[in-house]
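User: Just a sanity check before I run the rest of the batch. Below are the structure tokens for the first item. I only need the designed sequence back.
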């Protein structure tokens, strides 16, 4: 997959055809997603519990038309969340809030941090690991 280091200007995007915007993931074909990280309480640091936690998380994410990439081990988890259908659907602030509220309400989650919704195609990989929002 090619790597594009900067997003083209709005003027250039307006001049592109729909086929070009789709090829370069611009305009209505942009892919918006966000990253999250956290860890479980120390009494839940077993592989069996972590597997069960991830299964419940994946079920919740799939029920809400999202998908995630990543995982973790032991007690720490980090992942990138995006919309299930790409393009033209993107993660919305409501979907992000829904997932954060579900994880924050769980008694087994000790810490939870999330990043901003960013352009997943043009963002630097380090931007997914910037968790500016602390929820727990």
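Assistant: Here's the designed sequence for the first item:
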């Amino acid at each position: 997959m090619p790597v594009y280091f900067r997003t083209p200007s709005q003027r250039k995007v307006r001049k592109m055809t729909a086929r070009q915007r789709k090829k370069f993931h611009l305009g209505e074909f942009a892919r918006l997603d966000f990253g999250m990280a956290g860890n479980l309480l120390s009494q839940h640091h077993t592989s069996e519990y972590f597997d069960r936690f991830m299964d419940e998380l994946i079920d919740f994410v799939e029920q809400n038309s999202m998908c995630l990439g990543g995982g973790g081990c032991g007690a720490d988890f980090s992942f990138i969340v995006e919309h299930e259908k790409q393009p033209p659907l993107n993660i919305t602030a409501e979907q992000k809030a829904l997932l954060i509220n579900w994880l924050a309400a769980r008694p087994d989650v000790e810490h939870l941090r999330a990043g901003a919704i960013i352009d997943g195609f043009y963002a630097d990989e380090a931007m997914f690991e910037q968790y500016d929002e602390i929820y727990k």
